[in-house]
Please model this.
Amino acid sequence: MCFSKQVLGFVFLCSFFFSSALALAEKSVLILGGGVAGLSAAHELVERGYKVTIYESNTTPEGTDASGEHDFRFFPGFYRHITDTMKRIPYKDNKEGVFSNLIPVTKLHLEGANHPNLTIPIGFSITLDDFTVLVKLFLEEKNIHVSLNDLLYFSTKLYVLATSHEDRRRHEYEKISWWNFIDAGGRSEDYRKHLAIGLTKSLVTTKPQKISARTAGYTLLQLIYTSAGISDGVDRTLNGSANETWIHPWLAYLKEKGVSYITDSEVKKINVIERSVASVDVEVAGELKTLTADHYISAVPAKVMRTLLTPEMLKVAPYLDGIEKLETDEPLMINTVGSWYHRPHAVTKISNFYFAADYVQTNTDLATIESANEAARRAVNGILGKDKNSWPKAKIWEMHDPAIFDVAKAHDEARYVILQPHWLLQTTNVCDFLLKKSFSLKGFLKALR
Ligand SMILES: Cc1cc2nc3c(=O)[nH]c(=O)nc-3n(C[C@H](O)[C@H](O)[C@H](O)COP(=O)(O)OP(=O)(O)OC[C@H]3O[C@@H](n4cnc5c(N)ncnc54)[C@H](O)[C@@H]3O)c2cc1C
Model:
């Protein structure tokens, strides 16, 4: 009796696992767009047993990120998601796959500086010589000259950001431009040129008048934490062309794992019936095809996605009309003031439809290869959640927020709930007044010698 119960139990368990495995084996995902986000989603899915097909409109599998004309790629030290994926892309005898093709960046060209080839040393590897170069740059007026009060004012603003509570970050700093937050309009020409425009363009590659204070400020802080050694990581770039050292090995790996990457395939329409995607119309090599799958991930850019929105989609998920409000005329302009509220989550109200792209709401926030990869992980986790299978979720990292600021942040929270500004923003005008009486950085450093 007992034995037959055990046998029955065993048979039940076997059939349960067999049927779940069968159900999973049948699960298919169509990925629309084969850039970094599309490839990242495919990577996570294929390693979890999904049948993945990518449809890419280009005739070559190179997306925005590997286009030959912009081959330089910067991987700041705070990137965690894309670098984790890169470690899982085999490359020759590299122990850590294509990740080992990344080399440290030690110098950064400063936009807006008078000298065309002016670079500043950055990162962990700053030597004494580099430091001397940096000091000289500040001393020589023809290159960079920022007064001490400007420098302190800028640092105060960064400190305000670092010690602000999350709710203030999200609700106040998203609604103001970086330009206004750091009061670029009201300060010296040098301040505007070097700290507002030069630094922002060099590090965040976008216009300080348009980007939100939240995105620019917190990205800048992440870069500073890495450079100052407060958080791990080294700013890096690839040791060769992006295609050779990263994208092509990635595609080769994904194909070997079973991913189908179909080029010359333009997604024309996403057909939503009731609350889910029933099919997508794709023009494959000039021939219109209607394709179906269990799940669909949109990994096309925002400017394409907005043309694919249909009344049926908006009926189920009205908030997706936010995509139409995103600024997409210029690349890298997603993070304008207030854009966060218009950006979709990776998981949508359309039951089998997800977003994996750099404009999705992510911890990374700034539209980059890192946010594209993080969004892809979130989309994949959405699929895993829907399918209720036992595969581990893709890892998502928080941005670095040093514990040293916790007490100050708690203080700011107490002020935020009673609608008071950050305490330093109440007093910066006083600080500024006193600082105006101070001396230039040049004089200060000379006095020190
Ligand atoms: C000049 C430049 C330099 C940059 N440098 C850096 C850098 O150094 N570091 C960094 O982190 N980020 C950088 N970025 C940002 C980064 O490249 C992007 O954020 C990232 O590539 C976005 O990835 P994605 O997959 O979301 O979009 P994309 O890479 O744009 O991929 C979308 C894909 O969808 C395809 N597609 C479009 N329409 C359709 C359709 N109808 N059907 C099918 N497929 C379609 C496109 O061909 C494309 O391959 C840079 C961007 C630019 C423009």
